[in-house]
Design goal:
73% of the residues lie in helices and 0% in strands. By secondary structure, the chain is an all-alpha fold. Helix 5 packs across helix 7.
């Protein structure tokens, strides 16, 4: 997940620029989605309006409705983009290592870093999804299932907890998301990377035991302060 390019660096030149219509449409759509992230991240889903999206993107209301049927559709599209970047980062981390601890550490580090780099996107994807209706919650649920499956698959060869790998993985994902929700809601998104050692302990301890998890937490703390 890369940081979003600032809107004023993306906007096409006005007037007769000779740029193909599909490229113009892509640029408009991208700027609208950036404006959705900014408005929802800063004002909340309930208070953000189509007018906020229009003014933030520098387009007309007509242009907005050419791309999105309404406010919720625009939100869901922006949410999908934020979520896809995060899920891709997690999958990339877990596919890069055979060792579960290394995979978990990289997945957490990447996720926390990227959320911290874009607090508005963090607020939209972690907090405001709860205000955007049943479809938004359904999509959030799909992401939880996806991440649960990733951890379950990575830990199949570990000694299993009494609850089983899948339930344990689901609990881990839910707990991490709850911690992220609390911090982002308090406006602390930029400090999320500081949580890496403690979250790493929580993610790996059920499978590798408290002693080794404590060692991995200490290692992550040393790296963070070096």
């Amino acid at each position: 997940m890369g940081a979003r390019v600032p809107r004023d660096q993306r906007k096409l030149p006005p007037g007769r620029h000779g740029i193909p219509a599909d490229q113009v449409a892509d640029d408009q759509r991208g700027r609208i989605l950036d404006a959705v992230v900014t408005a929802v991240g800063r004002r909340g889903y309930a208070d953000a309006t189509v007018e906020d999206f229009v003014s933030g993107a520098g387009v007309s209301r007509k242009t907005f409705y050419q791309h999105f049927a309404n406010k919720q559709v625009a939100f869901l599209t922006a949410f999908d983009q934020v979520a896809d970047r995060l899920v891709t980062a997690v999958h990339t981390a877990y596919s890069a290592h055979e060792d579960y601890v290394s995979s978990a550490r990289e997945a957490l580090e990447s996720t926390l870093r990227e959320l911290a780099a874009d607090p508005d996107a963090a607020a939209l994807g972690i907090v405001e999804v709860f205000a955007a209706g049943p479809e938004a919650l359904r999509r959030r649920g799909e992401i939880i299932r996806n991440l649960t499956e990733v951890i379950t698959e990575q830990t199949r060869n570990f000694p299993q907890t009494a609850l089983g790998a899948s339930f344990t993985a689901e609990t881990i994902v839910g707990a991490v998301l709850e911690v992220l929700y609390n911090r982002v809601q308090r406006g602390e998104a930029e400090q999320l990377p500081e949580l890496l050692p403690d979250l790493l302990f929580c993610v790996v301890a059920p499978f590798i035991g408290e002693q080794r998890a404590t060692e991995e937490r200490a290692k992550a703390q040393r790296i963070a302060t070096s």
